[in-house]
UniProtKB/TrEMBL annotation:
InterPro entries: LysR_HTH_N, LysR_subst-bd, WH-like_DNA-bd_sf, WH_DNA-bd_sf
Similarity section: Belongs to the LysR transcriptional regulatory family.
Pfam families: HTH_1, LysR_substrate
Protein name: HTH-type transcriptional regulator YnfL
Keywords: DNA-binding, Transcription, Transcription regulation
Keyword Nucleotide-binding assigned: no
A GO molecular-function annotation: DNA-binding transcription factor activity
GO cellular component, one term: protein-DNA complex
Secretion signal span: none
């Protein structure tokens, strides 16, 4: 394997075409420099320079070898920079898993944008996932950070759960629904209509929050059709297939034929939770958490 130091010596002599000046640049005496170049030539099996008492010129082999030597040294320098940034948590890959409704929140978009600007050499991989599967994905390392709507049923030992914010639920109604003419709606009013949810097998944290809310008020859920995306749910509302309860950030989906009305239930809200491994968090995860705190205006 070629010695990078000898390649640097060769490159400097090739640029100066003078052993004395090259030695000065390298802060090296000329005889050791000459010996190092001779040793490199012996390793390569060909002469790099034609030397006389007055001139130093590259041999044809030396001229051909020069760009390859420069490329190796450039790559070595880049490798050192990348290694330094990896050690400092400024490069690498971060996998962010998130529930679909969270992608509509300002916190999500502002955090992604701020993190990308702060750490341009980090490859941020976004993975949409049901809230119920995010816990296992964080534990086994498939996801570094999870953004979930689902409160854990029991205390988590492997996953740290941080509540970032609460978001009110609003009713999504077809424009021709009689409730659309009201300023706000109540749960008993909504309970008379088919309720559009995520599929039962999807493991949606939003589903769990809504069903819990109905149980608290001793109201039946009349299931309507289901959609795997929040956009699909809103499209089904527009088609007159039922009503939906969605996080307030869903108002940004300005779908023709759909209106949003506040819910006259102060406790009707969903959490936005951040999941990370309890042990062994990487510097990149810590950096992401720091950016989340900056966007929120508080530490997390």
């Amino acid at each position: 394997m070629l010695d990078l130091r000898k390649l640097r010596y060769f490159l400097t002599v090739a640029e100066e075409l003078h052993f004395g000046r090259a030695a000065l640049r390298l802060h090296l005496a000329q005889p050791p420099l000459t010996r190092q170049i001779s040793a490199l030539e012996a390793e390569l099996g060909f002469r790099l320079f034609d030397r006389t008492s007055r001139t130093v010129t590259l041999t044809p082999q030396g001229r051909h070898f020069l760009p390859y030597a420069r490329a190796v040294l450039d790559q070595a320098s880049l490798t050192e920079v990348i290694a330094s940034k990896l050690a400092a948590g400024e490069a690498g890959q971060l996998v962010l898993g998130y529930a679909s409704s969270i992608a509509l929140s300002d916190l999500f978009s502002q955090t992604i944008q701020a993190f990308a600007q702060r750490y341009p050499e980090v490859q941020l991989t976004l993975v949409e996932s049901a809230s119920s599967s995010l816990y296992s994905k964080v534990v086994d390392g498939r996801v570094d950070v999870g953004l979930s709507r689902l409160q854990p049923e029991r205390e988590q030992t492997d996953v740290q759960v941080l509540s970032l914010m609460e978001e009110p639920l609003v009713a999504a109604l077809a424009c021709d629904n009689p409730l659309a003419s009201q300023e706000d709606v109540t749960l008993p009013q909504l309970a008379t209509y088919p309720l559009i949810l995520f599929p039962a097998d999807y493991g949606s944290g939003l589903n769990e929050s809504i069903r819990h809310l109905y149980r608290q008020h001793d109201l039946p859920v009349h299931p309507g059709p289901s959609g795997r995306q929040i956009t699909s749910i809103i499209a089904l509302v527009a088609a007159g297939q039922g009503v939906a309860l969605v996080p307030e950030c869903t108002r940004t989906l300005a779908k023709k034929g759909v209106v949003y009305r506040p819910l006259n239930e102060p406790e009707a809200c969903v959490h936005l939770l951040m999941l990370t491994r309890t042990q062994g968090r990487s510097l990149l995860v810590e950096a992401f958490m720091g950016v989340v705190g900056e966007v929120l205006g508080r530490g997390v």
